[in-house]
Amino acid sequence: MSSLRFLPNPTHFPHLNPIPKHPPNPNPNPKPKHPFTQIHSALQYNRKPQLTGPTPRVVVITSGKGGVGKTTTTANIGLSLARLNFSVVAIDADVGLRNLDLLLGLENRVNYTVVEVLNGDCRLDQALVRDKRWSNFELLCISKPRSKLPLGFGGKALVWLVDALKARQEGCPDFILIDCPAGIDAGFITAITPANEAVLVTTPDITALRDADRVTGLLECDGIRDIKMIVNRVRTDLIRGEDMMSVLDVQEMLGLALLGVIPEDSEVIRSTNRGFPLVLNKPPTLAGLAFEQAAWRLVEQDSMKAVMVEEEPKKKGFFSFFGG
Ligand SMILES: Nc1ncnc2c1ncn2[C@@H]1O[C@H](COP(=O)(O)OP(=O)(O)OP(=O)(O)O)[C@@H](O)[C@H]1O
Ligand SMILES: [Mg+2]
């Protein structure tokens, strides 16, 4: 099995490389820099990513298996897009078990939800919660925590909602991100209905991959052809020890374009509990930088390649049982 260099490396993404201001350094063996210095320099973008495709880009963030990082991805990619000056509406479609508001630290400001909008109890703009840090980022929750999916609420209601967002006086948002609930039941079908593209989040384990494979089929049946995946919670130490599937293995199994690879990072849990998404951390952590780069690729409808850095002798079919 191969080990992969998955950590964000700006040399793999020429568009992230700043224009060199100085001639090449004549010293061939410079002292190694502090890791954060290197990470920070990768964020000195010399241009804004070019938005491709018609707006709004309606993107569902889904997985099949629960707890793999959909909401974390929605929060971090959403705020990365806002930082890149795109207008973003993030819809928490996880009815009854919503938590995107918590990750964003906006829980105390959600007074109305889509259910009240549909009942005529409030206007759409009253249900949209504007982020104080990035005013071009807004959150919209479908319903109150622990409430059930209202009767009659389905894909059509979400399509109506997306149309209403398009028709707003403030202008149509560049991105509408839909945080999908786990599973493949009614909530999933509702969440994917208005989407034109999907980000499939998976962890590199067989249960998540089997669910992701099933979800890919359902998305394609629904007419969503643009599906890219994010491999989350990757650990190089486990990959090297052949205790975790490599990103290349995951890619081969699912056959999807790779939007990003996010390392396992304790900062994710810390930032979740603080309601302060990782991408806002200064200095950025590797996981935060990986989310930022995934956001760039999303804007440009680009994908990345898993780059092989070393080849280890093949052991007998450790993961060969997956998928037969
Ligand atoms: N890269 C990571 N490193 C460490 N922890 C992570 C990472 N990504 C997500 N987590 C943690 O995993 C847990 C689940 O994440 P999250 O809520 O985003 O998953 P989800 O797919 O939205 O779950 P659900 O299916 O319940 O909606 C959280 O505690 C989060 O902090
Ligand atoms: Mg979630």
From TrEMBL:
TM spans (from-to): none
Top-rank taxon of the source lineage equals Eukaryota
Tell me if ATP-binding is a UniProt keyword of this record: yes
Q: Which residues form the CobQ/CobB/MinD/ParA nucleotide binding domain?
A: 59-275
Cellular component terms, GO, for this chain's entry? cytoplasmic side of plasma membrane; cytosol
Gene Ontology molecular function terms on file:
ATP binding; ATP hydrolysis activity
> Region (Disordered) spans which residues?
1-36
UniProt keywords (A-Z) are:
ATP-binding, Nucleotide-binding
Q: Where is the composition biased (Pro residues)?
A: 20-30
Q: Which GO terms describe its biological process?
A: negative regulation of cell division
Has keyword Aminoacyl-tRNA synthetase?
Answer: no
Similarity section: Belongs to the ParA family. MinD subfamily.
NCBIfam families reported for this sequence:
minD_bact
Protein's UniProt name: ATP binding protein MinD
Taxonomic classification, please?
A: Eukaryota, Viridiplantae, Streptophyta, Embryophyta, Tracheophyta
